[in-house]
Amino acid sequence: MPQRYFLTTAIDYVNGRPHLGHAYEKILADVMVRHRRSLGDDVFFLTGVDEHGQKVQQSAQKAGLTSQAFCDQVSDQFRALWQRLGLSNDRFVRTTDPTHKTYVRDCLQKLHDKGEIYFKEHEGFYSARAEQFVTEKDQVDGKWPEIYGEVVQTKEPNYFFKLAAYQDWLRQYILDHPDFIFPAFRRNEVLAALENPIGDLCISRPKSRLEWGIPLPFAEDFVTYVWFDALINYVSFADPGLPTDRWPADVHLIGKDILIPAHAVYWPIMLKALGLELPRQLVVHGWWMNRGAKMSKSVGNVIDPEPYVETFGPDALRYFVMREMSLGQDADFTDDKFLQRYQSDLANDWGNLVQRSLSMIVRYRDGIVPTRPADILTPLDRDLESEATIVLFREAMEAKQIHIALQHLWAYLQQANQYVEQSAPWKLAKDPVLAPRLDVVLATLAEVVRRVAVLTASVLPHTSEKVYAMLNLPVTPESFRLSEAAYGSRLEGKPIQAPTPLFPRIEEEKKA
Ligand code: MSP
Prior knowledge:
It contains 19 helices and 17 strands.
């Protein structure tokens, strides 16, 4: 029975171009869903953009555009980059979409009718950068931390959602569901935060201050607080005729900065109050840092993924961020590390194995994969057939340890490269008596190349497709199922194409 697997990502603010932090999360999501598809699961992958709120309104003003025109422009940049990176999302959410707006208004009306929302005058501090009210408790050494940017004092009447009434329920829910938050240390942080009173949530902004939002259905001169609007994307877009079909999500993939309070406090309580099921798991990743500092638009130290994709190809960036970061931890992005991985892991270990294996089949066997005489196989040939790598790979993927899963695959690649050295086909080719041995080596290598293409397909989808094209194998939705990684003899007797380099050498000026 195929399992249903519904994964969502955070939806990115469109106050600027996509940066590496955004790209990482979406790539990670894509790798997770591609892996689930490779197991035969029925996947739904939702991502998109968060278009309302003060930040976006301010950026639009600065750009001299209407908020809508600005959102259209930036949303297109996100969508274009996601396409270039090969993201396989089933839907791309925009919170300015009319379906979403209607859904948000319906939720608000429902909560209002249930008595979950009340009106009161509120005096406090507001951070536009974090799009939230803050209190003196949030200060560090009497100062507002950098993440809040400029904090201003406001006094205004607003609508509030009765969050505090659910605090005990939420705490108990998290205690009863140990897998609800991953990794476990993040769960402890949430439980610690719930030791203090959470207060109620201000869910409106007067239009006099902020116009760019969804008007409240019961008070049209107020717009909806951007987080309340954005979180609802997970149900408003999951499928037409929602939420019965796809909901609940199996995974909400988010960064550590938006766990508390948005995803671990507001969202579960909103769902509970709306009578909807909770998502099965919040998977919380760390941050990409630039020389030890968090990459962020406001600080101005963001890394633009685009030049990396243009110079090295989408798979190089996908591989790097998956290989260098342990899910949940932070990691530092440097050009040196990127170039090192490109050269050594991609160009040498994987690219070169494909290049030399297929070239030798072209050179020594006219491009036809030879048949392997089973009676002359040595332990060296047999070792490469082992299922051990697949088991280790799958276990690591299930534990969300993608960097470890890749380490297992690269250990197998190293074994295959050593096999080429030890077998020395160029020597075998010189002696006609050794022809059967050369057949074994070349057929084994062809099949190793095919199985690595299958195993790496969730991380390097474009590369695997190229390898399949060189092997004259069709790419279908079933091609990269994990079951296809079993060692076989599918290629024996079949023609292949002359290879072209998968990860070409990059000239020095381009690297710079
Ligand atoms: N719009 C909200 C999310 C609403 S979800 C209903 C938001 N947007 S964001 O653009 O600021 O961030 C989007 C995602 O990118 C978040 O999960 C965030 O953690 C992630 N990243 C932003 N900067 C990052 C890094 N430097 N590194 C890794 N991911 C980070 O928050």
